[in-house]
Amino acid sequence: MMRFRLLGPLEVRAGDDWLEIRAPKWRSLLAVLLIKAGQVVPVDVLINEMWQDAAPETAANLVSIYVLRLRRLLGDTDGSLLRTRAPGYQLRLGEADSDLQVFDALVQDGRRALAAGDAERAAGLLAEALALWRGSPLADVPATPLVEAEAERLAEQRLDAAELRIAAELACGGAAQVIPELRRLLADHPLRENLWVMLMRALDAAGRHAEAFDAYGQARNAIAGELGVDPGAELRHLYADMLAQDEMLAKESGEAPGSISAGTVTPGPGPPESAHGIAEVRIPRSVPAPAQLPADIADYTGREDQVRHLCELLSSAPGEGGAVRIALVAGSGGLGKTSLAVHAAHRVRGSFPDGQLYVDLLGATPHPLGVGDVLARFLRDLGVDGRDVPVDEAERAARYRTVLAGRRMLIVLDNARDAAQVRPLLPGTASCSVLVTTRSRMPDLASTQLVDLHVLDDEEALTLFGRVVGDERAAAEPEATAEVLLACAGLPLAIRICAARLATRSGWTIATMANRLRQEHRRLDELSVGDLAVRASFQVSFATLPARAQPDGIAPADAFRLLGLWPGPSVSSVAAAALFGITEDLATDALEALVDARLLESTGPDRYKFHDLLRVYAAERAMAEEPRPDRDAAVGRLLRWYMRTSDAAATAVASDRYNVPLEPAKRVDADPAPLTFTTAGDALSWYDGERVNLVAATRQASEYGLHDVAWRLPAPLFVVFQSRNNWVDCISTHRVALDSARRLGNRQGEAWILNNLGYALGITGDSDSIGCLEQALSIRREIGDRIGEAQAANNLADAYRALGRRQEALELLHRALDLDREVGYRLGEGVVLVNLGDVLLGLDRADAAIGYLQQARRTFAEIDHADGTGYALYWLGQCYASLGRDAEVLDCLEQALASHQVAGNRYRQAVTLKFLGQIQARGGLIAEARGSWARAAAIFDDLADSAQAAEIRANM
User: Fold this and answer.
1) First CA to last CA across the chain, in angstroms?
2) What residues contact residue 696 under an 8 Å CB cut-off, 6+ apart?
3) I need a labelling partner for 842 at 20 to 30 A (CA). Which of 153, 181, 312, 725 fits?
């Protein structure tokens, strides 16, 4: 499977998805390792590439952190791909791990094909190579001499490949088709003489002789105008040859070329500049100007962009209409909102000579300050005699605005609860600026500029850690430092606590702290020092959660605790409803309340996730405050919902399959209804979104002792795993399921899982496949499961066939066919008939195989099973191909492809396209073959089957 793409923006594959690397330093690090793939790159070289002459003292530590993050992103848990090798790191790539490697291989193959005279194959290979490009190489990697040199080299290779492909197209007679592309290339590379040569040849071959001669004039003008020399020998000789061949064209070309004059556009005057002036009203005071800002933090670190942005917002000219400048710093607990606000306020205090007001509104506590009390205090601070402070809150607000009118003051409203608490404290004139910090985004507060805080990036986190614990100490233990910072998950409060504990414990190593943080259930205990505690910061938000919105809904606090029971990386609103035991609408109300309180993140429509430390906190509260029966009931609801929804998805994908019996599984009246699916595509889309969660649910069911769910949940998904060619998850979930079925003593379940597991292991080439399938067959015979016996016999026969034991396979398949016909299981009958055809074809008995395959086709058609119909047609095509009946092969394969598309089975689509391309190429349909192969390779890429994709491209 291709892992890296650098022919455009730098991307890595994580699971089935291509991901951009969001941090510039990560991109720089990976780019250098890719450029020098296979080489050990010293840390000093990496530092120089990433920071040039401005490397921080902590650069070596940062490199360690970035390497650890890249490993996690790539799933390289053991460091076998990105290796630590003194004095630095080594990135080990396979033959097709990057798009550049694939590009190089395709270009080499194309060059060889063109040299051998196979221009059509060369054109196809080179077109596929160029299709890998997504823009300028390494487009989003910060420029350094190394990166720029590599980007220039790759751009030159791309241009060479484009020229080679055009040459191949010309050799195939495609002159007219390449002319527009040549003109586009020449617009960017007017001095590249080979492009002018090919353009002249293409124009001449397309019968556009006058344009060919004119192209030479354009080339001569471009080259002489830029370099002051005549065109090269090849271009001049081509021109001379064309003159000699056609005297008439030579005379026409001797005429002065027409010229097109471009009018000169003189830009008009720009919009007049506008100046904003503020009439300063300086009111004599008998009291000193308020200077209430808390002390700035001496070691304030990071957030440079946000600090700069806040300073610009607060000190800029007022907006249109004289609106008050209001900057809102929003974020969850522990992100350092107050520290940022105070730091920025100190930076701009000189712009506010009339003073600075500050108040902690205690908005995140159960007892926020009353607005009237704050107004009274501010009025006194501004020189109003306490006896003159109005009693009525509205009158106080009006007096407050009057006193501030014309004064240049900064008002910092820290820790605000909501917009209602803030509005009466806003000045009425634009001479003042207001800075608000809050855990709410306050969408109902008008005219605000939002600074939405998130966790620190790696460099900021390391700098903060190093300033407290000491840079030398952090540099001495780079791996342990990286582990501590990842455990803190970018939360400034957590980082400060860890660093402070280390700073006061000289006997501890940083590795000691890392070891203490590894125990997740103890992590929040470790993140506490003095009056600072991550748990306490989370508690503030938790304590202020609102009550339930509807009588039959769930309180957000209860929802938060229950979400802590779920180990999956995300949760959908409908899954959360199952966990809570309420409707989806009511569940969404609670989830959105948690998002508003910054205790949950919304990652997309109807999908949510925790910050890592909040997940730990939620789990802690659930274990401490939710009674065991309530916890078990909630988890049971969710896992049974996953089990029944998985069964519904499998039914949508293969309605005629041999169903896993769900009814014996324990059912609770309060269990929510599972999802239903109208089409196979809907079911597969649901699976794609829940893939990782389904693995987590299977494991959690086993851990909770819900063994009837643990084996029944993944068992029906076998047809979905097969459709997505996802054998890794199939095997991992079925190993868990097998243990659960055996713990229950459920022989039927054990046989079911052994059958699925044996098949999946066989697909991946694992030798344990035969043993699993033989056990499944034996148990099903023992318990009298005749349909199951036929299924196991069929799968074991398939395993024997793969090992070359075809006679044994035939005997098992005939037994399976008899069993399926006895019980009337038509789907099983069709599958066995196809496999009989496959085995007979392998024994050079194609005529006999065709008979079984035609029976299979009719059987599948009668039960309206599109995927099975396509399966039978594919093997019929194989039989006809062995007999040289290519016209019938093409017909079968085109019908097979259509059937697999209806069924949504992408893997079988790719296999069919691969074979279709072979037959088309054999019949001289080269362009059609290339198209079929390209489509097949693309599907295999999407399914992470790099071996199949590479094989196709190697033979194109």
Assistant:
1) 18
2) 566, 567, 568, 569
3) 725
CA distance 684 to 661: 21
Q: State the DSSP H helix or E strand holding residue 595, giving kind and residue range, or none if neither.
A: helix 584-596
What is the distance between the alpha carbons of residues 868 and 813, in angstroms, rounded to a whole number?
Answer: 17
Instruction: Give residue 917's identity as a one-letter amino acid code.
Output: G
Q: Could you give the strand order of the β-sheet that contains 88-91, starting from the edge strand earlier in sequence?
A: 40-42, 88-91, 82-85
Q: In this predicted structure, what is the pLDDT of residue 912? A: 94
Gap between the Cα atoms of 403 and 278, Å rounded:
17
Is the pLDDT confidence value at 443 over 80? no
Task: Compute the residue count for the chain.
Answer: 956
**Residue-by-residue DSSP string for 502-535:** HHT-TT--HHHHHHHHH-GGGHHHHSEETTEEHH
Residue whose pair of structure tokens reads 């929040």 in the numeric block: 524
Task: Kindly tell me if the per-residue pLDDT of 131 is higher than 60.
Answer: yes
pLDDT value of position 736: 95
Q: How far apart are CA 443 and CA 451, in angstroms?
A: 13
For residue 328, the surrounding DSSP H or E stretch is strand 325-330
Where is 878: in which H helix or E strand?
Answer: helix 866-882
| Per-residue model confidence (pLDDT) at position 260 | 30
Give me the helix-helix angle, 59-74 and 478-488, nearest 10°: 60
Rounded CA separation 469/503 (Å): 5
DSSP conformation class of 142: P
Give the integer Cα–Cα distance in Å for 808 and 545: 67
Q: pLDDT tens across 822-844, in order?
A: 989 899 999 999 999 988 888 87
Residue type, 501: R
CB atoms within 10 A of CB 316: 13
**What is the rounded CA–CA span in Å between residue 25 and residue 625?**
43
Structure tokens at 21: 């690397």
Q: Could you tell me if 408 and 431 are in contact, meaning their C-beta atoms sit under 8 angstroms apart?
A: yes
For tokens 């790159």, the residue is 41
Nearest alpha carbon to residue 400 among 373, 365, 376, 366: 376
CA dist., res. 469 & res. 172, Å (int): 69
Average pLDDT score over residue span 246-253: 53
Cβ-contact 333, 598 below 8 angstroms:
yes
pLDDT at 278 over 70: no
The residue written with tokens 């397309």 in the block is 206
39-79 confidence digits (pLDDT tens) = 999 999 999 888 888 888 788 888 888 888 888 888 787 78
What residues form DSSP beta bridges with 73? none
C-alpha span between 12 and 749 (Å, rounded): 40
Which residues have C-beta within 8 Å of that of residue 395, sequence separation ≥ 6?
A: none
pLDDT at 280 over 50: no
Is residue 399 within 8 A of residue 376, CB to CB? The reply is: no
Torsion, CA 478, CA 483, CA 488, CA 491, rounded to 10 = 40
* CA distances in angstroms from 21 to 2, 208, 456, 536, listed in the order given: 16, 48, 16, 33
Handedness of CA 854, 856, 858, 860 (dihedral sign): negative
SS3 208: coil
Whether a cis peptide bond, with omega within 30° of 0, leads into 546 is no
**Chain center to CA of 167:** 39
The predicted model gives 602-625 an average pLDDT of 88
84 forms bridges with which residues in the sheet?
Answer: 89
Residue 364's H or E segment, with its range, is none
HEC per residue, 59-114? HHHHHHHHHHHHHHHHCCCCCCCEEEECCEEEECCCCCCEHHHHHHHHHHHHHHHH
- The per-residue pLDDT for 235 is 85
Token pair for 526: 């470790």
Given a cut of 90, whether residue 714 has pLDDT beyond it is yes
pLDDT at 279 exceeding the cut of 60 = no
Compute the average pLDDT of residues 886-896. Answer: 92
State phi, psi for 27 to the nearest 5 degrees: -65, -40
